[in-house]
Amino acid sequence: MQLLDGKIAAQSIKDHLKEKIETLVATGRRSPHLAAILVGNDGASETYVASKIRNCSEIGFRSSLIRLDAAATEESLIQAIEQLNSDTTVDGVLVQLPLPKHMNESKIIQLIHPDKDVDGFHPINAGRMLQGLTCFVPATPLGILLLLEHYHIETSGKMVVVIGRSNIVGRPISVLMSQDRPQGNATVTVTHSRSKDLPSICRHADIIIAALGKPLFLKADMIKPGAVVVDVGITRVVDPQKKSGFAIRGDVDFETVAPKCSYISPVPGGVGLMTIAALLHNTMMAYEIHHSNT
Ligand code: NAD
Fold it and tell me: Alpha-carbon distance 159 to 169, whole Å?
């Protein structure tokens, strides 16, 4: 069994971007700029945003964090997005999800300019992705593709089972891996909460992408020997042993599944790190679009 190590793969993407930025800055150009909006102070969201900002600074990107109170009006969030949309020094804009209940996420996502939508959630980018056109691919599915690419995992002609059908992970990764593209050309089965006899479906898979958000769901008897397993799940569970009071669990029962796999991604240290690397990749792409338009 070999680890699909997100730390190593993400670092190689970041090193490449850092080199690019150093060359740009040396020729007098400004560096790419990512702006994140955080509404409220949900613990997990705080951690994710802090990590995005830290990673930007590590590779020489500029970043801005706009914080709004949990009780802020939807109008104030809309104003913040509009301001960033029209700011020519900002390349990428993201709104950290989830938003407080009184805000309409779908409406908010549609207000981000598609050319700055580095999370790739805008319907224009989702539609372009579906048609195989140039677009911002959502960061987690893109991170999975980049992880498979880094470890030279063959996907063409393989049977892939995706567990989960959300708009941010399951649906896009199933579309991407079935397309005629690198890390594509697979025969993909999408499963979800209403799927029957998931274990036998999973046992046919050469590659399993587990993205359902149920800790330790995928067990050893659900995989075929030699399968590649990508664990997307991130769930916080109470753990009094940890200083933070919680531990992070993936969707895969790593201890029992790993010995049966050819490759497996750990949690933490797998797809989560790749998601950030993919976001940086998208921000670089937004910067390049921006510069080709001016
Ligand atoms: P979601 O809740 O939107 O979707 C979960 C999906 O799983 C649904 O489509 C549902 O039908 C399916 N599902 C639920 N129970 C099932 C079952 N018993 N059998 C089969 N399918 C089942 O979740 P999401 O936003 O797609 O996130 C999934 C997981 O991935 C979560 O743990 C989330 O925290 C994690 N995540 C990680 C990253 C990362 O960077 N690593 C990014 C996004 C999400």
Answer: 18
